[in-house]
Amino acid sequence: MFNQKCYQGTLESNYQLVIKQLKALLSGEKDLIANLSNASALLNQFLEDVNWVGFYLYKENELVLGPFQGLPACVRIPVGRGVCGTAAEKVQTMRIEDVQAFPGHIACDAASRSEIVIPLKKNGELIGVLDIDSPSLNRFTSEDQIHLESFVQELERHI
């Protein structure tokens, strides 16, 4: 779901527009922190029903808080723990309908009920994850997953 004040097309056309905007924001910029900051701000502005959008960066077998939009968050997450750590360990997207039912969920924000985490890679190696939380159960669909993975792939081309 997209912010209807900004986007009024189909879900697919809205995601295509956001990816086009991401390309424009990242054009000519190679700084990782600057690009992740703009990417999290862009998604936070246009996705509805989310309460946290940001990145964790992979450093020394743990995830360290990176650029984000939302309430203060957990600073370090061990690989293999919680949704983010599991996505990093498996290097695969995790789309969780109910985070309270996920074994070992790390509750940085008690209001979060569903979550999607997408690995971020450079030259095939894990460098972090995109984490998006929602206060609603089952917020993220398989279609959201496909398009958010495309968003991350575009971001990867600029880092």
Automatic annotation (TrEMBL):
Coiled coil: none
Alphabetical list of Pfam families matching this protein: GAF
InterPro entries with a match to the protein in the record: FRMsr_CS, GAF, GAF-like_dom_sf, Phosphatase_reg/MetRdx
Record-annotated GAF domain positions: 31-156
SMART domains, A to Z: GAF
Similarity section: Belongs to the free Met sulfoxide reductase family.
Protein name: GAF domain-containing protein
